[in-house]
Write a structure and sequence with these properties.
Strand order of the largest sheet: 9-8-7-10-11-12
Largest sheet: 6 strands, mixed
Number of strands: 18
Helix content: 25-40%
Structural class: alpha+beta
Shape: elongated
């Protein structure tokens, strides 16, 4: 083998290639290539005979835009829509759907109604696989036992939220990080911005957690079986302010929030006044026809308290007990509260004293008893209040009463002023337990005022319990104007009591009256025997206060009598001197002086002398109080006012408005108009 290689090495070199022969060979190769290209099938490529990478250049070329506009537009739309659809599919697959009940997608008119169940997404699922999975789920029937988040509406083509809770995703999605969520927000609470929301069904408004103290309207009672009516006076005004706020927000008030007596007593009336302080109040009784029932009459019992001159008002020891818990964090709560107390501080005299106790998770003294002369110090303490924490109301009440006892003024006014939304949730919090706590403290001669703030979790029921059992009053502050009314214009009547435990008892003459119905005072009803029992607590009357109670009475023999006579009723006994007279009823009032535990009695017979034959001829205040009573009953849905319209109430109010220096009665007319409009919806 080696020999063969050695022989090759001895051969002479090959002659050099001829340039002419090289040119002829290259030409022959090119000719053969061209012939093969014409006869062979193309393996790839387009008729344009251009590389595929050049297609985008061709689309965007001037020639393509001018000669193929339709193709260019379609390509552009495809470039925009396909990535967006892919992104949406990815987001849906990943689980970023809105929470149940937030967004309802529109339903196509001719599309079959398909109900789908949420599917737990997998992180590794590709877009196409996720889409196929959703289609298979939609096509397969759903188990009947699993509720749906959304259900097609019976009509209108809009989706409605079902009452059942949504099906939980399994496995659960990882919780969003803090940076992805607003503070306090639930996971997936907001709809992604790329999810279509028009048309959409908005989530229902959260039902308020307001709690109100009320009872069923008083029934019609037969004088033959129940001739005596007994109740405690009520000078609170909270219900009217809450009703006004509801109407101004475009909502008819909840029936339980309407206490007719508080609406009537919200307004000042110029009833006949007592002549001296020895006569703490004077009683006026007026009989008129009933505007909404021709077969009955109205008996209006009005009380006017003696009004002390401002200079003669005793010194005051006031403890501001202020709720600074987290529930008071709102513009209509703590900020409004602070403004309200600033108004009150400006009304105090130099000899008055102010203390401030706050409570949240626990109670603390913000300001020790301080003379009203140090106004700046008091205002600074108020301004520095900040909300936060839970609500240990019972502990705050104990601290406030303890501070009030420490700075007690003998012969003066000692009062705790509780400002809260009533949302007590730490320590003693039940109404009954707090009632017993307040009852123990009122024996110390310390009165209580309750000022309610806020809406949505207002515990009006608790505030009424505290006020009624703590020798106190209750008001609802929804605006600074209401604070001005309650704490400045009516400071004398709200701060300085002239009588406590005031009770009213009315006995009707069965010879003259067949039936009666007390309008309002459902939460103030007392037993007949409670009237003479001085241990039973009742309402208080402040300096210059007015209290009005209205009965609808049915004369004997009237066609409007609702109760049949008793079959086994005993024959009428020989008429007494009283029943034989023209007395229709007998009004008795018991009261105690602020520093006494023994009651005194005032009596007033009711005869036709007190009657007015024409309602239009009745005193203006009588007619306006009747108008407010009609409005309150209408809002509560009382059967007796079902056929009486808001327009008739409005006309009666216009005729009885009279002198209105503060605009309260004009504001009432506005509320009647609003209620009429809202009632039509």
């Amino acid at each position: 083998m080696t020999d063969e290689f050695e022989k090759l090495g001895t051969l002479p070199p090959a002659p050099p290639a001829s340039s002419e022969k090289r040119a002829r060979a290259l030409a022959a190769a090119m000719q053969a290539f061209d012939a093969e290209e014409k006869t062979a099938n193309r393996a790839q490529g387009k008729s344009w005979r251009q590389r595929q990478s050049s297609i985008l250049n061709r689309i965007w070329s001037t020639n393509m835009i001018t000669q193929h506009r339709y193709l260019a537009g379609s390509a552009l739309a495809t470039l925009l829509i396909v990535p967006a659809a892919a992104f949406l599919t990815f987001e849906i697959t990943r689980g970023n759907l809105p929470a149940s009940g937030q967004v309802a997608l529109p339903e196509m008119a001719d599309a079959p109604k398909v109900q789908s169940e949420p599917v737990a997404p997998k992180a590794s699922v590709r877009h196409g696989e996720a889409k196929r999975q959703r289609e298979e789920d939609a096509a397969s029937p759903l188990p009947a036992s699993k509720p749906l988040d959304y259900e097609a509406a019976p009509s209108g083509g809009a989706a409605q939220r079902m009452a059942e809770p949504p099906v939980a995703l399994s496995p659960p999605m990882p919780a969003p990080t803090q940076s992805m969520m607003a503070e306090g927000a639930a996971p997936l609470a907001a709809a992604p911005r790329h999810v279509p929301t028009e048309p959409a069904i908005l989530p229902p408004l959260e039902q308020g957690r307001d709690r109100f103290a009320n009872a069923d309207p008083n029934p019609v009672k037969s004088v033959a079986t129940d001739p005596v009516s007994t109740f405690s006076v009520d000078v609170d005004t909270a219900s009217y302010a809450f009703v006004r706020r509801s109407l101004m927000q475009g909502n008819l008030p909840a029936p339980d929030s309407v206490r007719v007596e508080e609406m009537i007593n919200y307004f000042p009336y110029d009833w006949p006044r007592p002549q001296s302080a020895e006569e703490p109040f004077r009683t006026t009784v007026t009989l008129t026809p009933t505007p909404w029932n021709a077969g009955t009459r109205l008996m209006q019992v009005a009380i006017k308290g003696y009004e002390n001159a401002p200079a003669a008002a005793p010194p005051a020891n006031l403890v501001f007990l202020i709720d600074v818990s987290g529930s008071m964090n709102g513009a209509d709560r703590l900020p409004l509260l602070k403004s309200a107390f600033r108004l009150l501080v400006g009304k105090l005299k130099p000899e008055d004293k102010v203390s401030i106790v706050t409570y949240a998770g626990n109670a603390g003294t913000v300001l020790e008893p301080t003379s009203a002369r140090e106004r700046d110090k008091i205002l600074a303490a108020i301004d520095n209040l900040q909300p936060g924490g839970s609500t240990a109301g019972a502990e705050g009440i104990e601290s406030a009463y303890r501070l009030a006892r420490q700075s007690f003024i003998q012969g003066g006014v000692n009062r705790v002023m509780l400002a809260t939304d009533g949302d007590f949730n730490v320590g003693v919090s039940s109404d009954e337990a707090l009632k017993r706590l307040i009852e123990r403290r009122r024996k110390d001669g310390i009165f209580l005022s309750v000022l309610g703030f806020g809406q949505g979790n207002l515990n009006d029921s608790l505030m009424q319990t505290l006020a009624q059992n703590g020798n106190g009053t209750a008001a609802y502050i929804d605006t600074l104007a209401e604070a001005q009314k309650a704490l400045v214009e009516e400071a004398g009547s709200n701060l300085f009591p002239i009588a406590k435990d005031v009770k009213i008892q009315v006995e009707f003459n069965p010879e003259r009256i067949a039936e009666y119905r007390l309008i309002g005072y459902e939460t103030r009803a007392l037993k007949r025997e409670d009237f003479n029992n001085d241990r039973v607590d009742a309402g208080d009357i402040g300096s210059g206060h007015s209290v009005t109670a209205i009965y609808e009475i049915t004369p004997k023999g009237s066609a409007s009598t609702l109760n049949d006579p008793l079959r086994y009723e005993a024959p009428a006994a020989a008429s007494t001197q009283a029943s034989a007279s023209d007395e229709l009823a007998f009004v008795k009032i018991r009261y105690k002086e602020p520093d006494s535990n023994t009651s005194k009695l005032i009596t007033t017979p009711v005869t036709e002398v007190n009657a007015v034959s024409d309602f239009a001829a009745a005193p203006q205040d009588v007619r306006f109080a009747t108008t407010v009573a009609a409005f309150g009953q209408k809002l509560r849905g009382t059967d007796a006012l079902e056929a009486y319209s808001y327009q008739e109430i409005l006309e009666m109010a216009r005729a009885a408005r009279g002198d209105d220096p503060f605009g309260y009665r004009s504001g009432f007319l506005d509320l009647v108009r609003l209620a009429e409009t809202l009632d039509r919806r």
